[in-house]
Amino acid sequence: MQALIQLMRDVFPSIPAAIEPYLATAVLLIAAFVLVVFAAIYAGVFIFFERRIAGRIMSRVGPNRVGPHGLLQFIADAVKLMIKEDIIPEAADRPLFRLAPYLVFMGVVAGFVVIPVSPHIIAADLNIGLLYVLAITSIAVVGVLMSGWASNSKWALFGGMRSAAQIVSYEIPNGLALLPAVLLSGTMSTQGIILAQGGAPNAPFYLAGGVPWNWYLFHSPMTMALFVVYMLAALAEGARIPFDLPEGESELVSGYNTEYSGFRFGAYFTAEFAHTWIAAGLAVIVFLGGWQVPFVQASTILNSQGWSMVGFEILAMTMFMAKMVAVIFIIIQLRWTLPRVRVDQMMVICWKYLLPITFVAVFLVLGWMLVLPWESPVAIAIRILMVVSALAVLGHYIKRVHYAILAAHDQAWMSFKVLPKFWI
Predict the structure, then answer these.
(1) Are residues 210 and 286 in the same domain?
(2) 113 with 71, same domain?
(3) Chain Cα centroid distance, residue 44
(4) Are 25 and 5 spatial neighbours (Cβ–Cβ below 8 Å)?
(5) Are residues 388 and 353 in the same domain?
(6) Are residues 318 and 420 in the same domain?
(7) Single residue among 336, 356, 375 that ends a domain in this structure
(8) 369 and 420 belong to one structural domain
């Protein structure tokens, strides 16, 4: 509360002191409402873009009937779910059946609290932010298992048991993959990890702010490997393809939510899609520098006042959102590119591959920190070389996307022909 009041004084110094506490309380209530509603709004927008991207990948259009360019399709879906009959099986455990979807939704929404989209826009900057996210999002597995048990259906129970095994297993490499960020920054606060990727206070211009060679992704080859491990574990925890075994519609009808309908059915999918925000947000915070602005010191942003602070906030938020969109696009593309793995393959990937890789990478990061300190010239040169290599990979990826668009004769994207001839 005091931090919010101080922020209001910096931006609007003419506000009377007598109404500051009441105004701050109103702002907090509005923020809490927005936080709860944001998950549903984001899920709807995510569904729309996922359908459009899936359509492009499969050389079709996607939703284009409801609203201009299909923009209102997710609203139509939400209205349909709201007005559908809410059916509870006769033999179900009714109290647990009702509670399960809300428990899943609450576990995901609570994770939004410590995700900072800018220097000052964060619900709570906890000093154990990473640990809080890992703990609170684990509540979802209780709701999923509860729904499988309460439905009194073998398909739902199989899906719930799969989910419990999957989430509990992949939480281990997921948490360990985030550990090097804690070692490098010396804190578990999400804001603290972002600030640590902004360079030293007296760093020269080319090392100031959120330049890519200050991101933990390029700290060493091991952190790049841990980024891949984290993304795979996040996909598994969110039950996204290739790890959507708790639903497994080709095997279990719809898995743990088979017996649900109407609003409760929608709550499960809202939570699933909202989980992608948490997963992508942690990836941006831990590996991609968060809201840091390239070549601008974090102290400059934090110490700004008045309208200059508002401008820096908008700029930092834009940087964060751009990185989020890139990570979310990768998540969507993987869903429509990879096939679903079997249950035994899913467990083998975790315990025989991801977990040993994570342990080895964490210990190697510790040795790298001792041999090559962050500010040493050799470490800086290696980070810049890794950034150049990543840009080369990104260029090859864009080239392949361009080739696929031209090969499919996709008229909606033929404007990409403006790219140089050597990209074809």
Answers:
(1) yes
(2) no
(3) 15
(4) no
(5) no
(6) no
(7) 375
(8) no
418: containing domain: 377-424
pLDDT tens digits, 211-263: 888 889 888 899 999 999 999 988 888 778 788 776 666 666 677 777 887 78
Q: Helix/strand/coil (H, E, C) string of the chain?
A: CHHHHHHHHHHCCCCCHHHHHHHHHHHHHHHHHHHHHHHHHHHHHHHHHHHHHHHHHCCCCCCCCCCHHHCCHHHHHHHHHHHCCCCCCCCCCHHHHHHHHHHHHHHHHHHHHHCCCCCCCCCCCCCCHHHHHHHHCCHHHHHHHHHHHHCCCHHHHHHHHHHHHHHHHHHHHHHHHHHHHHHHHCCCCHHHHHHHCCCCCCCCHHHCECCHHHCHHHCCHHHHHHHHHHHHHHHHHCCCCCCCCCCCHHHHCCHHHCCCCHHHHHHHHHHHHHHHHHHHHHHHHHHCCCCCCECCCHHHHHCCCHHHHHHHHHHHHHHHHHHHHHHHHHHHHHHCCCCCCCHHHHHHHHHHHHHHHHHHHHHHHHHHHHHCCCCCHHHHHHHHHHHHHHHHHHHHHHHHHHHHHHHCCCHHHHHHHHCCHHHC
Who contacts 314 (Cβ-Cβ below 8 Å, separation ≥6)?
A: 118
More confident residue, 35 or 168: 168
Final residue of a domain: which of 83, 116, 140? 83
CB atoms within 10 A of CB 272: 22
pLDDT given for residue 249 in this prediction: 63
Is residue 235 domain-shared with residue 341, that is, in the same domain? yes
Tally of structural domains, the chain = 3
Q: Quick one: 19 and 65 in the same domain? A: yes
Task: Dump pLDDT digits (tens) for 2-60.
Answer: 555 555 556 566 666 666 666 666 666 666 666 667 767 777 788 888 888 888 777 77
Q: Do 254 and 23 touch, CB atoms closer than 8 A?
A: no
Task: Kindly tell me the burial class for residue 306, based on how many C-beta atoms sit within 10 Å of its own C-beta (0-12, 13-18, 19 or more).
Answer: exposed
Same domain, 160 and 13: no
